[in-house]
Design brief:
56 residues, alpha+beta, Ribosomal Protein L24e, Chain: T, two-stranded antiparallel ribbon, globular, binds zinc ion
Length: 56
């Protein structure tokens, strides 16, 4: 099972998205919401409240 590179939630097999960066790093996303936040908005998971990596 993969874990979302942004929010840290488990991704059920057959769902979610895989994104390969130019440097060869593979990112997994549970939803387009997570994909957008990381790739488009360039947010860090630790500052986004709804991720598992968020630190108070
Ligand atoms: Zn996610």
């Amino acid at each position: 099972m993969a874990i979302c590179s942004f929010c840290g939630n488990d991704i059920i097999k057959g769902t979610g998205k895989i994104f390969v960066k130019k440097d060869g790093k593979i990112l997994h996303f549970c939803s387009t919401k997570c994909e957008k936040n990381l790739l488009k908005l360039k947010r860090k998971p630790i500052v986004v409240k709804w991720t598992k990596l968020f630190k108070k």
